[in-house]
Design a protein that fits this description.
Largest sheet: 6 strands, antiparallel
Order of helices and strands: EEEHHEEEEEEH
Number of domains: 1
Number of strands: 9
Helix content: 25-40%
Number of helices: 3
Distance between the termini: 22 Å
Strand order of the largest sheet: 3-2-1-6-5-4
């Protein structure tokens, strides 16, 4: 299961381990092509239906809905799968269901609001 995806200088790390030499958009397109859609198609649909303009969550399937932590134009970014989060604590430590721990530089209230927005999409 994907807990999070890190984008570091155009390289992708999944759960802090795998490095993939694809752009984030191409990697997500590979996941979405089975549903006959693309990354940009999902983003446009979510923007239109839910009226989100910034930090748009990316719904992939029932077990994978990614929330961006930074602006998508940022060179280094982080996308977290809301379905794999077990708990949030402190300033902000995310514990995943497989007991992996990730520290992010965002307020816990901000992360919770991102999760709430993405949960609306996942329930529809």
């Amino acid at each position: 299961m994907i807990n999070y995806i890190e984008i570091l200088n155009r390289q992708i790390k999944i759960n802090g381990k795998k490095i993939i030499n694809l752009t984030f958009e191409k990697y997500i397109n590979n996941l979405l092509i089975k549903d006959l859609t693309t990354y940009q198609g999902r983003i446009n649909s979510i923007k239109e239906k839910y009226n989100y303009r910034k930090l748009v969550p990316i719904y992939i399937d029932l077990g994978l809905c990614l929330i961006p932590i930074c602006n998508k134009k940022s060179i280094n970014n982080l996308y977290i799968n809301i379905h794999s989060i077990s708990s949030l604590t402190g300033c902000t430590t995310i514990t995943f269901k497989d007991n992996q721990i990730l520290n992010v530089d965002k307020n816990i209230r901000t992360i919770k609001s991102y999760i709430k927005r993405a949960s609306i999409i996942s329930k529809d």
